[in-house]
């Protein structure tokens, strides 16, 4: 009878349902197993959130919210900036046209003057600049009023451009024999702004001058005409060497031709946060030029490179891209600064 009772209840150490302390131990074991299984996923998620790609996405999202509907403050007087760097491929023309577009989209009146014979700034703004079009060549060499060559940008309101044509490639030779050859552009801009004011039109807030990648007479004219210099610097080692030479030439021009000229702004371009070199270059530039260097950096972006082939700036080509948002942030920062 005892044996039958034991059989009915199950053996003391058999596999019946777990109860009491055994059930508690089983639950704790299951919990440990669950945590062990989930911990690699949590680690992967944490690693992804710290990755350069996720940081860039988060930064773009924050910028998009900050810049939505932003109206920029107009300067007290027209600011004339020459965007210069004798080293090619540093994003000089891209910086000129995209900053101009960002300022115009912020409600400011902006004129881009293209004195690069390649005419890339004119192309990016959708401005016709074939050989028969009146351009900055006629302004500099033939003393034509600039008002006769300025064209509105078709995609962006409040943005105008004085285009360049291939004729400018011979302008440096023709300028050599002219009186006050270094002041030709300064005089043309002065007369244009005066006539613009007399006409009753809204004042221009910014004039951005795009230069060729050299230190010839066209670039000298641009530096003499400006009050400020904006230097785009590619985040690579060779860019630092080029910066030293450019600053020496600016010092010479300040001493002999334009004592008011200042390097007001340095913008880091083609920044790749995944590389130590880019971070090191940015750190070095900020250490040597803490007041001039913008906090905003322009990332490497396919959209920035693609936009000119469609005759557009990146702000009209893909306004939500990281490059467009970065240039808008840079424009806002530029508008809040004054020349040092």
Automatic annotation (TrEMBL):
Region (Disordered): 1-45
CDD domains recorded: ParAB_family
Compositionally biased intervals (Low complexity): 10-45
Organism superkingdom: Bacteria
Matching InterPro entries: AAA_dom, DNA_Partitioning_ATPase, P-loop_NTPase
Record-annotated AAA domain positions: 79-262
Family recorded in the similarity comment: Belongs to the ParA family.
Role noted for this protein: May play a role in septum formation.
Designated name of the protein: Chromosome (Plasmid) partitioning protein ParA
Provenance organism: Brachybacterium nesterenkovii
């Amino acid at each position: 009878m005892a044996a039958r009772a034991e059989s009915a209840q199950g053996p003391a150490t058999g596999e019946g349902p777990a109860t009491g302390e055994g059930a508690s131990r089983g639950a704790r074991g299951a919990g440990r197993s669950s945590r062990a299984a989930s911990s690699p996923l949590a680690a992967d998620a944490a690693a992804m959130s710290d990755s350069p790609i996720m940081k860039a996405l988060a930064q773009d999202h924050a910028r998009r919210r900050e810049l939505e509907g932003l109206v920029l403050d107009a300067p007290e007087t027209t600011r004339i900036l020459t965007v210069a760097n004798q080293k090619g491929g540093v994003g000089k023309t891209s910086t000129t046209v995209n900053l101009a577009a960002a300022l115009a989209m912020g409600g400011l009146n902006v004129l881009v003057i293209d004195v690069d014979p390649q005419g890339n700034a004119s192309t990016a703004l959708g401005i016709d600049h074939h050989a028969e079009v009146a351009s900055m060549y006629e302004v500099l060499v033939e003393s034509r009023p600039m008002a006769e060559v300025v064209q509105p940008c078709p995609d962006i309101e409040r943005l105008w451009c004085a285009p360049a044509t291939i004729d400018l490639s011979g302008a440096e030779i023709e300028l050599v024999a002219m009186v006050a050859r270094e002041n030709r552009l300064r005089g043309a801009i002065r007369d244009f702004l005066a006539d613009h004011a007399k006409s009753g039109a809204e004042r221009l807030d910014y004039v951005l001058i795009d230069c060729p990648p050299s230190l010839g007479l066209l670039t000298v004219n641009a530096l003499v005409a400006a009050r400020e210099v904006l230097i785009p610097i590619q985040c690579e080692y060779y860019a630092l060497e080029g910066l030293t030479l450019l600053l020496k030439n600016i010092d010479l021009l300040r001493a002999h031709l334009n004592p008011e000229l200042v390097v007001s702004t340095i913008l880091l371009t083609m920044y790749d946060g995944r590389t130590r070199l880019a971070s090191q270059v940015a750190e070095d530039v900020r250490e040597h030029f803490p007041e001039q260097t913008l906090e905003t950096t322009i990332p490497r972006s396919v959209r920035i490179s693609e936009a000119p082939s469609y005759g557009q700036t990146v702000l009209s080509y893909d306004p939500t891209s990281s490059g467009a948002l970065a240039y808008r942030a840079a424009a806002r920062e530029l508008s809040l600064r004054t020349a040092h």
